[in-house]
Write a structure and sequence with these properties.
This protein is an alpha+beta fold. The chain is built from three helices and seven strands.
């Protein structure tokens, strides 16, 4: 397994719509394992392929509690097929927007259709943190970041700070 470099906003690849995965093969499973390792190392609870520069519709996550055993999940070509009218607010963060957090309102529950790492069709109904995390990561596949839900004033402030920090470390 290998750690992958995580892109930080504003990187144009984070704003690009990802293409569907065509074959669930060993190369893809290796990418899934590398993404999981990268996510755990960061540490984070979700990571989408575009965040490591791969513009494919693939994401991994693990929303298990700190004291629970790890529960890695991979979603290939995920699609939201239903969302609740009820909304939920979570304070969100993102590995591509380090050290910035903001409250985002999203549907409280969703049903997602996807392929698992064996290429089998699956459907999951999620609520709570899993529902929020799935929506946040699926947004990444459409080139959307959680800061896109904020006012342009707040969003631009965060992007300016990130740009400054990236220039400092470059
Ligand atoms: Ni994110």
């Amino acid at each position: 397994m290998a750690l992958l470099p995580i892109l930080v906003a504003p990187d144009p690849r984070l704003k690009t719509k990802a293409k569907p995965v065509e074959a669930v093969d060993d190369d893809l499973r290796k990418l899934i394992d590398d993404m999981l390792e990268t996510m755990y190392e960061a540490p984070g609870i979700g990571l989408a392929a575009p965040q490591v520069g791969v513009l494919k519709r693939l994401l991994v996550l693990d929303v298990a509690g700190k004291d629970d055993p790890p529960a890695p999940m991979a979603f290939i070509n995920p699609e939201i097929v239903w969302e609740s009218d009820d909304l939920n607010v979570y304070e969100e963060g993102c590995l591509s927007i380090p050290a910035h957090y903001a409250e985002v309102e999203r549907p409280a529950a969703v049903r997602v259709r996807y392929l698992d790492r064996d290429g089998k069709r699956q459907e999951i109904e999620a609520d709570g943190l899993l529902a929020t995390c799935l929506q946040h990561e699926i947004d990444h596949l459409d080139g959307k970041l959680f800061i896109d839900y904020l006012s342009s004033l707040k969003r631009n402030m965060i992007l300016r700070k990130l740009k400054k920090e990236t220039q400092k470390s470059a």
